[in-house]
Amino acid sequence: MIDKRAASAAEVVADIPDGSSIMVGGFGEAGSPVELIHALIDQGASNLTIISNNTGSGEVGLAALLKERRVTKVICSFPKTLNSTVFPELYREGFTELELVPQGTLAERIRAGGAGVPAFFTPTAVGTPLAEGKESREFHGREYVLEHGLTADYALIKGATADTHGNVLYNKTARNFAPIMATAADVTIVQAARVLEPGAIDPETIVTPGIFVDRVLEVADPVHESRLVAEGASYP
After folding, report:
1. Backbone dihedral region of 42: left (phi > 0), alpha (psi from -120 to 50 degrees) or beta?
2. How far is CA 120 from the centre of its chain?
């Protein structure tokens, strides 16, 4: 029987090396794997490329990883949000590079990467600076720009419920990018509020099959990023 449970957050991220590319689930706070990110900060890996919807809030979670100067490139859709103060400073300084990707294109690039599709054409961003230097073609009288599939060395995602085989359920829209990120990473690491025994989850309801998940960590009472930001918390 395959048991993918890890004993601790430190254990589950221990082998992530410097220079890794890491997909991080979440749409703002929803689905953000804060405990896994904090464990990665403690672990010390640096020169990371982060693929995520945004760059975090305040000085916790993803923003805290950036604050520690561990991230040299970000591929995302929303680098500046209401409580995003860390990334703009690093970007202006020239420390962290930004690859800005429209949100739908980001989702499709990740999905394509997980499906083994190397590239695709999309009309999104045609005629804007985001299309500069990219191949374009016309189909049926409309111009499209070429975008490449995205893969990563690791994915850090958050589920509501998992089992020891790595099958995962999510809490409504907190699933966001997580299911496709799980397919597009070499190693997928999941934190979940409950980790059940095999067979406890109805197979007809499973969103991410365990074949895409390598490690599972139970975090019974996960923190709420927005609450930490409101309290002015900072990590570490």
Report:
1. alpha
2. 21
- Distance in angstroms (rounded) separating the CA atoms of residues 171 and 161: 8
Q: Which two tokens stand for residue 43?
A: 């672990």
What pairs with residue 21 in β-bridges? 49
Mapping DSSP to helix (H, G, I), strand (E, B) and coil, where does residue 144 land? strand
pLDDT at residue number 28: 85
For residue 77, give the amino acid letter: S
Compute how many other C-beta atoms are within 10 angstroms of the C-beta atom of residue 177. Answer: 24
Structure tokens given for 143: 């111009």
Task: Please state, in angstroms and rounded to a whole number, the distance separating the CA atoms of residues 39 and 23.
Answer: 15
Q: Which is it for the CA torsion 56, 157, 24, 108, positive or negative?
A: negative
CA distance 199 to 164: 10
Question: pTM, whole model, 2 decimals?
Answer: 0.96
Instruction: Return the amino acid letter for 201.
Output: I
The CATH code that applies to domain 18-230 is 3.40.1080.10
pLDDT at 181 > cutoff 70:
yes
Task: Give the residues across from 75 on adjacent strands.
Answer: 51, 99
Distance CA 41, CA 109 (A): 27
pLDDT tens track for 15-55: 999 999 999 999 988 999 999 999 999 999 999 999 999 99
> What's the average model confidence in pLDDT over 190-200?
97
Tokens of 170: 């999510």
Cis peptide before 236 (omega within 30 of 0): yes
What are the backbone dihedrals phi and psi of residue 19, each rounded to the nearest 5 degrees, phi first?
85, 5
Q: Report yes or no: 29 and 52 within 8 Å, Cβ to Cβ.
A: no
Residue 233, strand partner residues: none
- In the beta sheet, which residues pair with residue 196? 163
